[in-house]
Amino acid sequence: MGLLDAGIKNHNVLVTSVDNVLNWARLSSLWPMGFGLACCAIEMMATNASNYDLERFGIFPRSSPRQSDLMIVAGTVTMKMAERVIRLYEQMPEPRYVLSMGSCSNCGGPYWEHGYHVLKGVDRIIPVDVYVPGCPPRPESLIGGLMKVQELIRMEQIGISRADALKKLAEKSVDPQFVIERERKAVEA
Amino acid sequence: MEEGKVFSQSVEQSAAAYAIIHEKFGSAVSAFDANETMPFFEVLDVSLWRDIALFMRDHAKLRFNYMACMTGMDYQAEEKLGIVCNLESLSLFNHRLAVKVKCARDGGFIPSVACVWHTANWHEREAYDMFGMLFTGHPDFRRILCPDDWEGFPLRKDYKVQESYHGIKVPY
Hints:
The structure holds 2 protein chains of 2 kinds.
Chain A: H1 18-27, H2 39-48, E1 70-74, H3 79-91, E2 97-101, H4 102-107, E3 130-132, H5 139-155, H6 162-172, H7 176-188
Parallel strand pairs in A: 1-2, 2-3
Helix pairs in contact in A: 1-5, 2-5, 5-6
Chain B: H1 9-25, E1 40-43, H2 49-58, E2 66-75, E3 80-88, E4 96-104, E5 109-111, H3 119-131, E6 134-136, E7 164-165, E8 168-169
Parallel strand pairs in B: 1-4, 5-6
Antiparallel strand pairs in B: 2-3, 3-4, 7-8
């Protein structure tokens, strides 16, 4: 769980590794680029707004790719837009993360067969870290995806590649159901 | 217009409007089709389309001041492309008419009516973008939705999706 959950006792001294502190700082201020492409963007905006309040995760949309850590591809990527998406991705400073939101950007969605102008999956042009299924996904799913990105950042270490971090995430990922059950039982007891 | 048929009131009004157009242009326009949903006629002499449009807009008893929609069409069996214009007279008369204009499938020309109804400006660009007919006398004639270097016209019935666009694979 998070660093602060450990509780700070013993005269405010906390012993941890540099990796842990760096990752905690990065995952607690994950700034996405503020751009939406279709109806998924409406759900993304709803997630940013007060009901779901992404700011409690430190997630706050930036209006420039140069200030962003995360690209949420929210919606149908057309062929015309694909080149712009590549350019925006290249303008983002590393380390950068990509979250593909909704069926359209995952695989073309409803346009997979007759969409002459639709890119069949944004992973054809930029590397995607987390896919969120849904058409469009509810804010809860998006938050789930964003927490997966945070978990990926938590797996990173100085000197290991993104591919290794993703492998580590697949092996060591936390099953949220297990955590929920455990917390519930703790409350009941 | 067939004699002895009973039309609804709205079609009757459209038929009266057609009669004025037919009186002026004679054989340049086809017979009136009393379609209940949208009564229409076809422009047979395509070169007169802009004159007919101006006449429909400015005649004191017609005043078609509003182009509600303009759609492109692909008549593959007839080897033709065409447009369908839905015209109305907002706040003046209750008549409404659809006008069909056709041209050859390869390199066909239709006179632009962007100077008559400004709505037609973007609609003609879209019809060109999707079907590939050319509009003569259009003030800013180019594609509107697809990229400028797009190959083919996507809504033609024989359109084949291109294999790749700028090195990106298009089919699923």
